[in-house]
Write a structure and sequence with these properties.
The chain has 6 helices and 8 strands; from the N terminus they run H-H-H-E-H-E-E-E-H-E-E-E-E-H. The protein is of the alpha+beta class and 209 residues long. It has one domain. This is Secreted protein.
Amino acid sequence: MPLHVPPAPAPALRSVLAALGSPTAVHEARTPSLRATAGPLTAELPLPVHVLDRLSMAGRAADGRPPRTRLTGWRFLIRSGDRFVAAADTRLTPDGWAFSHFFEGPYVAATERALRQAEQLGKSYQPRLLSVPELYMLTLWLHGAVGADAAAGLPAASDLLVPLAPAPPGIAPYRPHPFSELLPLLTHRLTPAAPPAPPVPPTLAAPAA
């Protein structure tokens, strides 16, 4: 079923289009494939980028509340012809949404692959990106409430998280996990191991009579 890609804030899209139309911005981008592209470039598939906070038990101990998410930007995939060659991030400033930077690398192809797989799941979702910075992990967040405000909300228990490659060791990329299933695993990864118990001193022999 088709994904319900949320509309990006108009200023965010305008800032990316302005950067794409600026030879200086494109030339100075640290993206060889973007600089080498001669044809027209388009910004597609806007995805809100959320960060998962307070994941570890240590981070939650202060107030006892569960993890929360916060919107940090909007990401656009940059298309040249029949393929995506880069991505563009925007950020919120005191003056509104503004272009941040272009980049390329494995997450561009990984995001495209995960989106294509999500279209085959047989259910409609609103796609988002969810970053877990404590694990250097990025996931495609498939939110079941397709009409929800893309800038707000926590993952529901039945929402799916699809780890993008490269994923942390022991977590298979591109495998959809219900949030309620993946959260305990991630929390466990970040919970410090209990210190070993001190050795028990040997029992002293009874004194002779």
